[in-house]
Design brief:
By secondary structure, this protein is α/β, with parallel strands linked by helices. The chain has a single domain, classed as Metallo-beta-lactamase, Chain A (4-Layer Sandwich). The protein has helices spanning 2-20, 75-85, 103-106, 109-116, 127-131, 220-233, 249-252, 267-290, and strands at 40-43, 46-48, 57-61, 64-68, 93-97, 119-123, 154-156, 161-164, 167-173, 182-189, 194-200, 238-241. Helix 6 (220-233) runs antiparallel to helix 8 (267-290). Bound molecules: zinc ion. The site of zinc ion has 3 residues, from loops.
Length: 291
């Protein structure tokens, strides 16, 4: 009887929590977020396993794999298929990371964590947003829970190192877009050379509110300025980003193209993108001051 009562309480509690955590993924109107894209090797042990526009990165090591970004909730199946198509085991994913806690990169995170048993690491700035399924985000919070809430096994701070096998990733905080947005810097190798890779979170502006009116994130304006300056100072051979469109994946590479890391050598495109973002930021400051 006691046992039965205990079970009934658990069943009630779990049905209540799944009700409380109803996920409302905002419709985005961007069909390229859901479009399939054949996975490919970017450089060394770094692979692209995302959708046509929502970039997901797989870093394969002898000790298992790291997966960065998981797209929308519906991307889980696509990412799994892409990992397997490359000849890797989905269950060998040991560490899950994100560049920012927005639903278009966190959608499948909890599901993939459950399927693989991997650990989820998140920056201190995005910890609450991840745990609340996006509800704690200063801008996207208005939509409520936009992805399945996920608790982190480890909190990352600026310049922390994440190691798995022979791969070491450096975390660099680039807040603004979300409070805990970050980029990753690391080295990969193939038979001919090594490459310094930057997975950049480009600080695009997400709010229509004046920066000074965002009471839940008072350092937002300075954070954008600092992130833009930090990104500009980084040195690398290859750069990619949270969205394929941000680093021009489909201009640089066509499906079926042979392995060629050099198509992602693009300092000029990187600097131009940062200049554009800086212009957007400065225009926003002017608009905020005028309103
Ligand atoms: Zn975003």
């Amino acid at each position: 009887m006691k046992k039965f009562l205990y079970l009934a309480i658990i069943l009630f509690a779990s049905s209540f929590s799944s009700f409380a955590q109803k996920v409302n993924e905002p419709t985005n109107g961007n069909p390229q977020w859901k479009e399939n894209y054949a996975p490919f090797r970017i450089a060394g042990n770094l692979y692209y396993v995302g959708t046509y526009d929502l970039a997901s990165y797989l870093i394969c090591t002898e000790a298992g794999h790291i997966l960065i970004n998981t797209g929308l909730a519906s991307s889980a199946k696509q990412i799994k298929r892409n990992v397997q198509q490359l000849g890797f085991k989905f269950k060998d994913i040991k560490i899950l990371l994100t560049t920012q806690a927005h639903y278009d990169h966190m959608g499948a995170m909890a599901a993939i964590k459950k399927q693989t048993g991997a650990q989820f690491f998140v920056t201190a700035g995005d910890k609450e947003t991840a745990a609340s399924g996006g509800k704690a985000d200063y801008e996207m919070g208005k939509y409520g829970v936009t992805f399945k809430p996920i608790h982190a096994e480890k909190i990352l701070n600026n310049f922390d190192s994440i190691s798995l096998g022979e791969t070491h990733l450096q975390v660099i905080n680039h807040p603004g877009h979300t409070q805990g947005s970050c980029s990753y810097l690391f080295t990969v190798k193939d038979s001919s050379r090594s490459y310094k890779v930057l997975i950049a979170n480009m600080p695009s502006i997400v709010t229509d509110r004046r920066f000074q009116d965002i009471k839940e994130y008072t350092t937002v304006s300075n954070d954008y300025a600092n992130s833009l300056a930090s990104l500009k100072s980084l040195e690398f051979d290859i750069w990619v980003a949270s969205h394929a469109s941000q680093f021009g994946l489909h201009k640089k590479r066509k499906p079926g193209d042979a392995y060629n890391p050099s198509v992602f050598f693009d300092q000029k495109g990187y600097m131009e993108s940062l200049e554009e973002l800086k212009k957007d930021y400065e225009e926003k400051l002017k608009k905020d001051a005028a309103n």
